[in-house]
Amino acid sequence: MVISMDRWKGKVAIVTGASAGIGAAIVEQLAEAGLQVAGFARRSERVEELAKKLSGKKGKVHAVKVDISKEEDILKGFKWVTDNLGPVSILINNAGVHQNTNLTGGETEKWKKVFDINVLGLCIATREAVKIMKANKIDGHIVHINSVAGHKVPQFENANVYPASKYAVTALTETLRQELNHLGLKIKITSVSPGGVRTELLDAAGLTSDDPKMKEIISKFPFLKAEDIADSVLYVLATPPHVQVHELMTKPVGEPV
């Protein structure tokens, strides 16, 4: 099997949650591979900084201010990409959040935020990408950044609705694969499920800053780097058109679960 990104050179990719961590690492590798990359993020100024850093690469990065929890933002973002860069060929659904709460006494708004971003935002972006790919006869590729928590619930204090949101992504991956087959479309769909990755996710959720005990526990875990997951994404994108990697799970050596 020949692994090559050549067929994607000059094509348009959208990466959600592109301002930091896994999203930023994916943006960087796609730009190095020669793609036109639209980085969707609330903190679009960080994507702009990344674009300047990558200005000498084969491809180009474009910052697009999008809050994935808001459908209107997503629709505007896709329209901007289509009008300014062209039809999308690759969608990386990377945006995701975890909230520091629980099920027995948790705040409803925090639960909603997780599902709005991790599930509904992913579904809306996927719908828009498929519409564009279908209209332009593009055999594209959609990648959901999932989690090992979407396959086995971790014994992790304050996991709350996060595993449920990622189990949803696992189901949505297979449901979309079946739907694309039914429609006769050659669009590929892949779930990439990382284990522990050292990113801003836990800090943003307050799990490390609000709970010293949790911070100490987490400090003892082995972690992957964001670049390791970007490598995984580039691997699945580089497979030949007839090869679909349905699920790719990557864990750090020594991960206890």
UniProtKB/TrEMBL annotation:
Signal sequence, start to end: none
UniProt cross-references to SUPFAM superfamilies, sorted A to Z: NAD(P)-binding Rossmann-fold domains
Sorted UniProt keywords: Oxidoreductase
InterPro entries (UniProt xref): NAD(P)-bd_dom_sf, Sc_DH/Rdtase_CS, SDR_fam
GO molecular function per UniProt: oxidoreductase activity, acting on the CH-OH group of donors, NAD or NADP as acceptor
Cross-referenced Gene3D superfamilies: NAD(P)-binding Rossmann-like Domain (3.40.50.720)
Organism domain of life: Eukaryota
Family: Belongs to the short-chain dehydrogenases/reductases (SDR) family.
Protein name according to UniProt: Dehydrogenase/reductase SDR family member 11
Native source species: Zophobas morio
